[in-house]
Amino acid sequence: MKTSFQVDNQFLSAALKNELAQNAESQTPENNWLTKIRSYSYADFLKQNLPTRKVEHWKYNELFFLTQAEFSSSPLASRTQSEISDLTLALKNAFTVVFINGQYSPQHSSDLIDSHVSATPFSQANTKQIELITSSLSSAQQSTNLLIQLNTSLSQDGLLIEVESNKKIGKPIYLFHLNTSADENQICANQTLVSCGTGSECQLIEHFVSEKCEATQLALQQSVVHLQENSQCNHYRLNLEASTSMQVSRALFLLEKDSSLNSFYYSEGSQLNKTDIDIHHRGKNSESNLTGIYLPSETQCIDYHTNIEHQIANCTSREVFRGIIADSAKATFNGKIHIFKDAQKSDAQLSNKNLLLTNQAEINTKPELEIYADDVVCAHGATVAKIDDKAIYYMQTRGINETRAKKILSIGFINELLDKVENEALSHYLKDQVQICLSDIK
Amino acid sequence: MSDVIDSYVKTEYQAGFVTDVESETIAPGLSEEVIRFISAKKNEPQWLLDWRLNAFRLWQEMDEPDWAKLDYPKINLDEISFYSAPKSMDDAPKSLDEVDPELIETYNKLGIPLHEQAVLAGVAVDVVFDSVSIVTTFKEKLAEAGVIFCPISEAVHQYPDLVKKYLGSVVPQKDNYFATLNCAVFSDGSFVYIPKGVRCPMELSTYFRINEANTGQFERTLIVADEGSHVSYLEGCTAPMRDENQLHAAVVELVCMDDAEIKYSTVQNWYPGDENGVGGIYNFVTKRGVCHQNAKISWTQVETGSAITWKYPSVILRGDNSIGEFYSVALTRNYQQADTGTKMIHLGKNTKSTIISKGISAGKSSNAYRGLVRMSPRADGARNFTQCDSLLIGDQCSAHTFPYIESKHPNAIIEHEATTSKVSDDQLFLCLQRGIGAEKAVSMIVNGFCKEVFKELPMEFAVEAGKLLEVSLEGSVG
Amino acid sequence: MLKIKNLQVKVEDKTILKGLSLDIKPGEVHAIMGPNGSGKSTLGYVLSGREGYEVSGGSATLNGDNLLELDADERAKKGLFLAFQYPVEIPGVSNMEFLKASVDTVRDYQGKEALSTVDFMKLAREKCKAVNLDPNFLKRGVNEGFSGGEKKRSEIMQMMLLEPSLCILDETDSGLDIDALQVVADGVNACRDENRAFIIVTHYQRLLDYIVPDKVHVLSDGKIIKSGGKELALELEEKGYSWIEKA
Question: How many other C-beta atoms are found inside a 10 Å radius of the C-beta of residue C111?
Fold first, then answer.
């Protein structure tokens, strides 16, 4: 049984391999810790082989394409402010942080003076911040996804965003990621760490956009959000890249005692859009609420792997993901709830519903439960279905034709989740987006 | 309250005696010679020997699968004997009177009377002791209806065309590590053929018994239900208590032709090992059926035995309008581990499947449901409903659910639900307050939890299953 | 207006309607009564075009158009309205959006000008008020989480908005308390005029105290076995269905 391709790092260009190797050797004293993390990750990455479909995590989306191409590092690209503004969301009063090809671009980003929010490149972190970064990143190391390890190796820097303790931040923190077009295959990396201080409240919007191009842009990304005690975070992650892009990413949340997380995902798909979402309930009475929407069409692929770990007692998690799969698109959803031993009184619920629109479209869903404690309430449900005939008939009796009824019902199926989006500007934007996305349902 | 429950799960295995029968057992280890020996012992035709050897070659290229949620040391096949048969069977008995009285006594102890007059009305029994079939009851009566029910080793000689046609037709030779191993070394098992339009006049039943130490059991069952026929088949199994682990790797193939129906029920009670996890059967079984047009296959299983259970009775719904069902109760306690479930492969139009799985974990056991529901691009109007519930008794056990759902048709409907619960203190207290003892209370709650599955079992099995569960639960109340 | 001749309908090979004939003129209110399982609801479904109801014989025309050939939405556009006994819930689709889509199509078909969103809202609020529904209900999902009474009032409200020419009310009285019944009846009575006809399907005579029918028909085993004036309903109430079935 073949479980891997023996390709190692062959898909990386010579220059890129060289850069990684040099990093492993150089030990500049000031950034010693960052170099170390990178070289360790690279060593880990090299120990592995690219997985085939026999490997559970990649069962429905293997990495075979990496054996067929070579990727070089994304160059530094610059875009004018107006070019950026054309692409960003029209949010009122947001703190904007811009990344181009994974790299932090301070000139396009908001001034954070007196905002109770700070943005510090890892390379400029002070001792206390380094401690925070290293401890959070060490939790992040335990990923089953080898491309996330590669991301850490390739990230020459990272950005630490800190929300001050006991502060309620009114404006959203808006992280805008742009990948620029390129003539040859490129790989870019980004890692961002957000620390929500004790008792703080914030809104975090991650928005991914890419320029269309012939070559393959492979974007690797990892966000780690650390919710300190009693903090609250409303998080949104929108994947609106060009259909030619690929993104393999991970969002990791560490929830301390009494913290509360709302996390929302939206993706219309691209050549490959794979997001691992890990939620670690580390402190008692923490709560998480996950919502996700995926709407792939044409030949796009979307893959969400969610893993909610109840590591400790008395935590609550809710998860709802819905997808509509059109044309020859493919969606994969894997939702795992993991209740640790002694995590008594855990309450975890998961629901995944899917609509398939054609018989070239494909959905693979696997809601999983792994339970090691007995006094828990855990349930999951998954459905794959067509649009309800009864509802179509009801609408027809009110004069609405079948095609129109199907469209309204599909949009309604998604809007039910969008109605829960608290940020109004975002909610309106996404509702319009869904209308466009589902406009040719027949 | 937990003390009551604790003390309650530690009942001893009741079928754990050893029968003193003189056996012929070959030296441990696997090689071409062993396969030739088994084949020669059974006087098999050349084609079957070739078939076995081919499987053996395929198998040598394969690795033991490791994807299941099971934790056990690698099985050392060099320590296992691949053939054992009671010596006195060499010149097989013509009737029950010639059967070794020790054997008859064994089955009496198990509560399976072999004398036809004593057999519960309407159940024909085939008995497989270690690797060979000992006796098949009611043969003549079945023959009147045209039903063939005999050991597969006999069918190879008497009905070679049928066996040749269907053996390996549902579970291909290279299907998986354990199935391929079975193809190479299978010893015996039951063969059933129901002719066109015949409703089998009685329940058919096979009892499997592993007796000898250090032997593996590799039985093979093949059931062919021709067009418009109907059969209900029951299977039971037990083994002595031994300190070492014994391997059981069976293959069951069901062929369900147009408009036919097969109901296959299993009460699996292999030795589960002791309370410290020592000993017990490693049960790696491949069961699969194929349904042609309008056909129906229904699997019902009650799994309480084995140290390790790896078993996924499946249905390939090839014909339009065919139906697949899977009803399962899996109980694990002490250090038992089960990874069991089903696969429903919907190929035809308007095919339907129902999966009801009830997992009960107690002690330090681990109990996983693993299932696959697949809708092909042709499966217009197909439907599946899955309900998968876990009950945890005590805080040292674990329960897992791994349902794979894959759809490629917009008009196929799949619904999957899973829940987890425990025997709550409130429920127990209510029962105690009404004067019902803790043991009885837990057994009542568990029985209620499993009701949907028990009602699918043939009557006499349902009673047996209920009792088995009650016995298995004794001492597991925590 | 509505002419049904010898209509026979099967559902999954079982014949439910076994030759039903009915002639309804503009302005008339016909009540159809019958015991459970007599085929009352089937009539509403088959006339409105629900799938799974196979017409094995007979005909049904509305203002000369052959109803049975049309899709459900075409029938609605031609002025047929069915108030459901159990309206389906459609989470995620707001009443507002749903009703606007419905009114727009029907008006468009009738050659009327489309209503602006403002005018539509005004009209919708007005109709809500008429059936005693909180206008906030327009923002909620279609029938989502509505009580039985709210669902029925919502159906009547939709009827008032769409101004159909033939209204079929399928057991609209079931599950309603007296107050809600009054509201529903007031709504229906307010819609009565010389151009509009009603078929009121009901098990009990109660509703007919509020909406007085011109004719009463008794449906049993898929056929109309007796027709009469409004007094027939009272007689049924007193003697039960077995009285006629035996006769």
Answer: 6
